[in-house]
Design goal:
Helix content: 25-40%
Distance between the termini: 49 Å
Strand content: 15-25%
Largest sheet: 8 strands, mixed
Number of helices: 16
Low-confidence stretches: none
Mean pLDDT: 93
Bound molecules: adenosine monophosphate
Number of strands: 16
Length: 429
């Protein structure tokens, strides 16, 4: 047996239905907000991530799957998707289309982290980017879209952790203040935090070390060091979120692990996920496009961890996603009934009814057992006698009841049963 690579996993049916349903809702909600899908390659030049995510980030420093190709070019499996979207934006001169570009993506990302609950080496993100809009209203609209998406999935009680990390204009003074605050305690920093303090003190605010966290309690706050324009942007965003009823919490030490952020940064955590409780992260990146060789263009985006989203799904969503597609087992009682069963299956599918033709090669009993093993809740059986009487047998495999239904009524009956199941699965209005 060849096992899958450590930290990767197979998403198996029927669980894949849950993923598909989440993605369907995402596409619908994002389209309602004027977003179009972008699909960028999984493989990118390593330099892209070094120049965007940043050398001092944990991702670039130690988590990328990087290798040399036959011509000694360094390639990397994308650890995140914003950099790829920004590269594509510059490469295809998307700015020339005029106006704001609203793009979303859904796909796998790769990071060599120690696997644990909610943390994988291959994981999937659903993300969105607004490129070309600088004002706080763009931040607010993106966050309202996020909450509309979560509401559609049935999430209640989520709130955004929000901060501003300012811009190049105000950050150097803040970094000096952090250095000054931490330097007297440098012996308490582990090797990783010592490196972070040297390379990018902002990263230390992200430290998971409890001793370092304790040192940071009274540390200077970025919010007290913002330049005037960043302060106005931040205040305006808070006002807009309040006006839209989006719950938020100011988190002065939230900096996020990627170097390209400017001004707004945010995160949403979900209860029940354990140590890895961040459901999504995002922020503004007003220098990223120009850092990658494009025109000076502001941007903002988020990335939801789809694996964690699936783990944190509110009750009911999974059940509805699984119930919606439960196929009816079609079982011909004998070999001579197969052409009829095949034709009836096609008729029912035209009506939108999912049908799974079960071979009864080893007899109808075997066929029924096979259907039950697959989890079917209903079976339609057709034999010679039924064909002559123009009926089919509808069998409830859960309650073990059976009823003869006229052939021209079976579609209507199955549709009515499917609607009843869907209604039962819906949350009360
Ligand atoms: P980031 O790109 O680091 O801002 O992460 C955005 C979101 O992706 C996080 O909030 C997580 O939900 C998800 N995520 C990041 N890394 C992993 C991982 N190794 N495994 C699973 N999900 C992840």
């Amino acid at each position: 047996m060849i096992a899958g690579v450590k930290g990767t996993r197979d998403l198996l049916p029927p669980e894949t239905r849950v993923w598909n349903e989440i993605e369907r809702v995402a596409r619908e909600v994002f389209a309602l907000h004027g977003f179009d899908e972008i699909r960028t390659p999984i493989l990118e030049p390593t330099e892209l991530f070094v120049r965007s995510v940043g050398e001092s980030s944990d991702i670039v420093h130690k988590e990328m799957f990087t290798f040399l190709d036959a011509k000694d070019r360094s390639l990397t499996l994308r650890p995140e998707n914003t950099a790829g979207v920004a590269r594509a934006y510059v490469e295809h001169s998307l700015a020339q289309d005029g106006g704001v570009k609203k793009l979303y993506y859904i796909g796998p990302q790769f990071r060599r982290e120690a696997p644990q609950k909610g943390r994988f080496r291959e994981f999937r993100q659903i993300g969105a980017e607004v490129i070309g809009a600088a004002d706080a209203a763009a931040d607010a609209e993106l966050l309202t879209m996020l909450f509309d998406f979560f509401a559609r999935l049935g999430f209640l009680g989520l709130s955004i952790s929000l901060n501003s990390v300012g811009t190049e204009d105000c950050r150097p003074a803040f970094l000096d203040a952090i250095r000054a605050h931490l330097s007297p305690h440098s012996e308490k920093l582990g090797p990783d935090d010592t490196r972070r303090l040297r390379e990018n003190p902002l990263r230390v605010l992200d430290s998971k070390d409890p001793e370092v966290q304790a040192l940071l309690v009274n540390a200077p706050r970025m919010l007290d060091h913002l330049d005037e324009a960043s302060r106005v942007h931040h205040e305006e965003l808070l006002g807009l979120l309040a006006a839209c009823g989006i719950p938020y919490r100011i988190e002065p030490r939230l900096v996020r692990g990627l170097d390209y952020y400017t001004r707004t940064v945010f995160e949403v955590t979900a209860p029940g996920l354990g140590a890895q409780d961040a459901l999504l992260g995002g922020g503004r990146y007003d220098r990223l496009i120009s850092d990658l060789g494009g025109p000076k263009t502001p941007g903002i985006g988020f990335a939801i961890g789809e694996d964690r989203l699936v783990m944190a799904l509110p009750e009911g969503f999974r059940e509805r996603a699984l119930a919606g597609l439960d196929p009816v087992a079609m079982i011909p009682l004998g070999p001579e009934d197969r052409p009829f069963a095949l034709a009836l299956a096609r008729e029912l599918r035209k009506e939108g009814i999912a049908v799974d033709l079960v071979s009864a090669a080893k007899g109808p009993k075997n066929g029924l057992r096979a259907a039950e093993r697959k989890g079917a809740r209903r079976a339609v059986l057709v034999g010679e006698r039924e064909r002559q009487q123009r009926v089919v047998l509808l069998k409830d495999l859960v309650n073990r009841t059976q009823e003869a239904i006229p052939m021209d009524e079976i579609a209507r009956r199955l549709l009515a049963l499917a609607t009843a199941v869907a209604d039962k699965g819906n949350p009360p209005p």
